[in-house]
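Bug report (template v2)

What were you trying to do?
Predict the complex of my protein with pyridoxal-5'-phosphate.

What happened?
Run completed; filing so the output is reviewed.

Input:
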Amino acid sequence: GAGNSAASRDKAYFLHPYTNLHAHETQGPLIIERGEGVRVFDDSGKEYIEGLASLWCVSLGWGEERLVEAATRQMRKLPTYHVFGHKSHEPGIDLAERLIKLAPVPMSKVFFANSGSEANDTAVKLVWYYNNALGRPEKKKILSRVKAYHGVTVATASLTGLVNNHRDFDLPIARIQHTDCPHHYRFAEPGESEEDFATRLAESLEALILAEGPDTIAAMFAEPVMGAGGVIVPPATYFAKIQPILKKYDILLVADEVICGFGRTGNFWGSKTMGMEPDILTCAKQLSSGYLPISAVMVSDAVYRACVEESKKIGTFGHGYTYSAHPVAAAVAIETLKIYEERDLVGHVRAVAPLFQRRLKALADHPLVGEARGVGLIGALELVADKETKTPFDPVGRAGAVVNGLSQENGLIIRAMGDSVAVCPPLVIGEEDINLMFDRLTTALDAAIPVLRG
Ligand code: PLP
């Protein structure tokens, strides 16, 4: 009977992450059954282009047999083992070596975790441990930015600069400070150039550091391109202006490459695209094409050596996860990295990104779109009630949800973030599917006009 349908069992038992729980009680789930290439199919057989690569992660699309085989081989050989207390295994060693060789700047060591949140949480702890090692226990505050997304653990939700992640969770915790969001369209003064905007933000950062006291600030976290905050590409000179200030006050830079890593922006790392030279780099998602949970934290030699000195004094580095460097996840990540290299996936992204960006930016002319922004194979549309005045729709979030729902009806999965919608397809997408994706998105936008303006 109806009580046994997957949808009714979902409503009966399943507490969904990132979901309007009240709406879910009436609306129920969209049940995805299988995937093939850049497409997924629901339990009625309906086809969708996955325009967000699940959650910004399925770089190789669905049905990549080599990843299935890599997992199966490792499952048979050594399905699980830990790496605490000097234990190790070949998949963990091999993946660490590969990542160090791929790093955008010289890095020394890799720590493994299971999610982007855990990688960033680890980076927070490493920053604190490092400053204890250097005998400056007061240098512990961490800077992040308004609209940043760094995860949902207590510390990383605090770094995240979005109200949903703070309100009702009593966050942020102490010692976290948010500086300006580098979104020119929203936050520039009238007539201010991108260059002048970046200069002003760098000055504002320095003012914050001086107000807090440079001796109290340990690190700044930054996504090269902000993802969940609305796909915000900073001005070209932003990091060039920010980094000397961090260096001046001996503040570490942590690059959160959880979305940008592994080709998304048209270079292997977003740090390369945006000119970042991080001391610590975190990555996840496309590391395994999302097939299994795994994340990594790379640290510079200076950070690593200080941590070794601290460990000499106090003993064990007291942090790690049961599944750090899980051998099956590591084997899948190694195979993923091999595929990236063999198929020159970054080359593919560079080849198709011009079409993707042309189709995206053409939508800036749509009556509902205030800004179309992006780089490589990631982008967003910001929906506005009035293009001239940039007035947002009210209440916040409705417009994105409307376009999101109409896209889904139309065979395209994207993601709404407030008044913006994001597109971030599997990196393997071809030109024909890029065109089809934007055709479906355009149809959804047109259908949204009477709903939002009606
Ligand atoms: N950092 C960034 C930039 C992210 O986009 C995400 C997730 O979307 C995270 C961290 C958190 O990763 P996870 O959801 O795997 O904990």
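What did the reviewer find?
The longest strand covers residues 369-375. The two ends are 40 Å apart (CA to CA).
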